[in-house]
Amino acid sequence: MQTGTPTFTPKTIEVDGVQKTISVQPNSYKLVKDGAESESLPAYKAGTTDQIGTYTIDSATGQVTFTPSDKTYSGEVAPVSVQATGSNGVKVQTTYTPIITPVTPTKEPSSTTDVQGKKQVSRIVLDTVETDADKDKTVNFNKGSETGANGERVNLNPDTLTLLNDAGAEVTSLTTSDGEYVLDKANKTITLHLIKTFTGPAKPVKVQIKDENGTKVETTYTPTVTDVTMTSEDKESSAPQGKTQTGTPTFTVSTPEVRITGYKLLNPTGNTPVEGNEIEVPDQGTYRINPTTGQVTFIPKPGFTGPATGISVQATDENGETKRCEI
């Protein structure tokens, strides 16, 4: 809302040798359009017939109030004619023209990085200038710096927080080839639930907010996923003829945040996982595995000596990634 009071200056004239002051008659201020007087008129965008608000006038003081109905509009408003009637009955007109200064909220994008298979979260921070080490890991929106006549500013509207899909539609969740983004408006967070096999930079998601005028501002959140790998060390053992042997191959995951979830023996024919936990190798013996620890037990056939052909062990991590080694 804006207000303004046009100035009508009293004038002194001489009538029959007498100085007389012509002043504004009480309660004579009016708005005028096409010769018709009113205390309320529609307000239009300058140069158009698009209504964007209403003019009203205080007939006692001449103060004109412009109340916008389209809060997204900025720029010049078509002027309104304001009339006052002098004490001599003469009517005089001038104009009142409000100008709407645009208010533009600001934004900062966010990026996070974590290991493969782990969800990633970015907070959304409103009207706070961040300077700490995590400032790039939050989506930031700030209200416009422009101020009104009394220092007031246009606040952001948290209820309008939203994600945008590729078509620009407002959504609270969005599925991509990398996973699913979910917006939690109450807690002001965006979470990406990743496909466990995905690594690298994820497709960014657009985030939008509006201020109380309805002005939109958008930015992005981009997670990056670090590849998780496994390494392995083969294991050998020896024992006297007829004695059972055990050995546990070593598998190391590149981050402690991802666990190995199980171990399997691989069939020497085709290197496919063995159903169950043991397999017999003709003329040599039986291999048995503990699927939780990966420890392998070799039970030789009676009379077998010499190097066994060995067996392959496969480890699987919680992302479904596999690694094999020999024992």
Q: Could you walk me through the main structural features you see in this protein, from its secondary elements to its overall organization?
A:
With 327 residues, this protein is mainly beta. Helix content is 0%, strand content 50%. The chain is built from no helices and 33 strands. It has strands at residues 2-4, 11-15, 18-22, 30-33, 36-38, 40-44, 51-57, 64-68, 75-76, 80-85, 91-96, 99-100, 106-108, 110-115, 120-126, 138-142, 156-164, 170-171, 173-175, 179-184, 189-194, 200-201, 205-211, 216-226, 230-233, 245-247, 250-253, 260-266, 278-281, 285-289, 296-300, 312-317, 322-326. The strands form nine sheets. A six-stranded mixed β-sheet has the order 13-16-15-21-20-19, with no helix packed on it. Strand 4 (30-33) and strand 5 (36-38) form a beta hairpin. The N and C termini lie far apart (81 Å).
Residue fraction in strands:
over 45%
Structural class: mainly beta
What spatial form do the alpha-carbon principal axes imply?
Answer: rod-shaped
**Cα-to-Cα separation, first versus last residue:** 81 Å
Say how many strands there are.
33
Largest sheet geometry = 6 strands, mixed
Radius of gyration based on Cα positions: 39 Å
In the sheet with the most strands, the strands line up as 13-16-15-21-20-19
Total helical elements? 0
Overall mean pLDDT stands at 92
Contiguous low-pLDDT stretches (5 residues minimum) are none
Helical percentage: under 10%
